[in-house]
Amino acid sequence: MDRTIKVTGRGKIAVKPDTIQLNITAEGTFKDYGETFKRSTEDTEKVRRAIADAGLDPKELKTASFGINTEYEGYNDRNGNWKQRFKGYRYDHRMNLRFPIDNEVLGKVLYELSRCSVAVQFNMMYTVKDVEAVKNDLLAKAVSDSKAKAQVLAEASGVGLGEIVNIDYSWGELDIYSNPLTFGSKRMNSKMDCDEAAFDLDMEADDINVQDTVTILWEIK
């Protein structure tokens, strides 16, 4: 029987974020399907103009998902029975915008989105541009950790550590982000809103702690 030892290594790093991602959602409900589609297109163009007014390329605003669905509302009829009636067609357009971390640029973008006539919702994430580089660094550290643990176990057991027999790694998605700010729906309708919307932001992105594991089967001599 082949003698082996299986050890799971863990890689951990603190990543300095270099990118801001804004997740922006525009939505609306209208009676007619055609009107809903038309208004969704118009609202998207307004959001793009807001991005351009902030000094960024509107082509960087990417669609994450888009859908139009029927919407119903509940009510009690004159006899007190609970029923539902057709309310309209609801569109939901989810977009994201990425740009290098810069508080001045972020302040301009948030200001223009707040002034936009579309009642958008948005949240902000810190992330990194080169996700693959982070993944590769994590894997290297995880393999080194597995080897170090395997050597300790082999020495403690009075055996020698041989070659790698098998590597087990799950190629899943690695989330590298922090979510420090979330904003609700916002319209610029009052003087107070206008004064508050001139955002002067002073934020420092904290490191993002990420980790991954790899399991290695080693030969022992």
Q: What does this entry show, briefly?
A:
The protein has about 220 residues and is of the alpha+beta class. The chain is about 30% helix and about 45% strand. The chain has one domain (about 5-220): 2-Layer Sandwich (Alpha-Beta Plaits).
What general outline do the C-alpha atoms trace? elongated
CATH architecture: 2-Layer Sandwich
Annotated CATH topology: Alpha-Beta Plaits
Mean pLDDT across every amino acid position? 88
Portion of residues in helices?
A: 25-40%
Order of helices and strands: EEHEEHEHEEHE
* Neighbour order of strands in the largest sheet: 3-4-2-5-7
Number of strands: 8
Percentage of residues in DSSP E strands? 35-45%
Indicate the CATH class. Answer: Alpha Beta
What's the topology here?
Blueprint: E1 4-15, E2 19-30, H1 33-53, E3 61-76, E4 82-100, H2 103-115, E5 121-127, H3 131-157, E6 161-168, E7 177-183, H4 191-196, E8 208-220
Antiparallel strand pairs: 1-8, 2-4, 2-5, 3-4, 5-7, 6-8
Description:
The chain is of the alpha+beta class. It has a single domain (4-220), classed as Alpha-Beta Plaits, CATH 3.30.70.2970. The protein has helices at residues 33-53, 103-115, 131-157, 191-196, and strands spanning 4-15, 19-30, 61-76, 82-100, 121-127, 161-168, 177-183, 208-220. Helices cover 30% and strands 43% of the residues. The chain is built from four helices and eight strands, in the order ββαββαβαββαβ. Strand 3 (61-76) and strand 4 form a beta hairpin. The two termini are 12 Å apart. Helix 1 (33-53) runs antiparallel to helix 2. It is elongated, with a radius of gyration of 26 Å. The strands form two sheets. A five-stranded antiparallel beta sheet has the order 3-4-2-5-7, with helices on one face. It has a three-stranded antiparallel beta sheet with strand order 1-8-6.
